[in-house]
Amino acid sequence: MVKPKTVIEKIWEKHVVHKEGDQNLLYIDLHLVHEVTSPQAFEGLRLNNRKVRRTDLTFATMDHNVPTYKRHEVRDATSKKQMDTLQQNCQEFGVSLADMYHPDQGIVHVIGPELGLTQPGKTIVCGDSHTSTHGAFGALGFGIGTSEVEHVLATQTVWQGTPKTLNLKVVGDLRPGITAKDLMLAIIAKFGVGFGTGYIVEYTGKAIHDLPMEGRMTICNMSIEAGARAGLISPDETTVEFLRGRRHVPQKTADFEKAAAEWLSLATDEGAEYDETLVINAAEVEPQVTWGTNPAMCVPVSGCTPRLEDVNYDPNVKRALEYMGLEEGQPIESIEVDHIFIGSCTNSRVRDLRNAAEIVKGKKLHSNIKKAIVVPGSFTVKMQAEKEGLDQIFIDAGFEWRNSGCSACLGMNDDVIPSGGRCASTSNRNFEGRQGNGARTHLVSPEMAAAAAIHGHFIDVRQLTGILN
Ligand SMILES: CC(C)[C@H](C(=O)O)[C@@H](O)C(=O)O
Ligand code: SF4
Asked: What is the pLDDT of residues 370-382, one digit of tens each?
């Protein structure tokens, strides 16, 4: 009998082209490039007189630094330089680029799946930690450093240590009104920011496979916040249907069906073993809100910030509460916010925007809110959302409707939260200073961000939708 295998083992084995001890040289099927982590890599090629080995497997976009308000107004000199450099490098090395005016432009982890570049079974790298997002498709997506970006550009391979595998098993069903973001925040809150260290995580269980691709991307995206090397979900019919008809998948029906059959065969076999298994019950998950400065500092919206005596006077908790300007034991619902950010590679796809718009529709921003922005993950998302009239729903409520990019997810462009500002954010990181010096970030789902926008403080969105009274 053939030994049952996980999707991780199946993809891994197909891509190891050379081994030295514990180190494996992996062939890379797709290399995504952005302006921040590529300049030195291209410079390295230039100095060594090398070419990009597979320009056909390399795609670049501008996302981190692009202005989302007025496209042509790049105020920051470093941002401008990085974008100009990417433009020149792509031209010189023959790499296709979606620059900030290109219809395919968007956050690198949004456009890969959107264009059908991301496919099951592929090894995908990018000089960006959230490359794990692509794992939603049953692909192995790794974030790599700039020197590795150079290595992949030159050789289309990368060195990786042999991974350990972890089964993050989600039992039970998510209750109505609970999102993939809540589930992932609850997973990190339960198992900690280090549970994935050294592992490639596969998310399994019915609740995971019931999620649409957007929700799966939200889950896999945040694997990195738990220290995982990658996170993925076995491909299934939902994966196949999402990809059907996209630009880079086989176009003829017969060819697509053949590819789809191969993709489905990659799913983890019944009885396959993992190095480690963790279990969470989806039915216990409530809407989540982070109160601290890492994603595990998170509680249900009905909860409170920790009491110091309950956490042994943990200095990290104390410091986080201080930075966040919160009291110990403070009810989450009493926390008032003044900024709202709906966007980032975690939650900026059309479905995310639709879900937020549903909450906002016909309402107005609360007077506590100084600024609320909606930043579509890509130009394509923006166009689709506008076609559906979502932009108008947000604008009527008092939100700003922006152009696509990473925006206020990180303080690398003009969209920063001011010092002392408190933001309900749909992004993935709440580190000190992440959204700007002294800015305070609370990670939530798009629905919860929308609810906070209307009420000026955190509130269980299920109260607004009639799921809870
Ligand atoms: C700028 C880039 C290297 C960085 C990353 O790797 O994740 C960014 O995308 C982030 O989210 O902090
Ligand atoms: S949206 Fe945020 S997390 Fe995603 S790639 Fe951009 S900066 Fe990184």
From this structure: 999 999 999 999 9
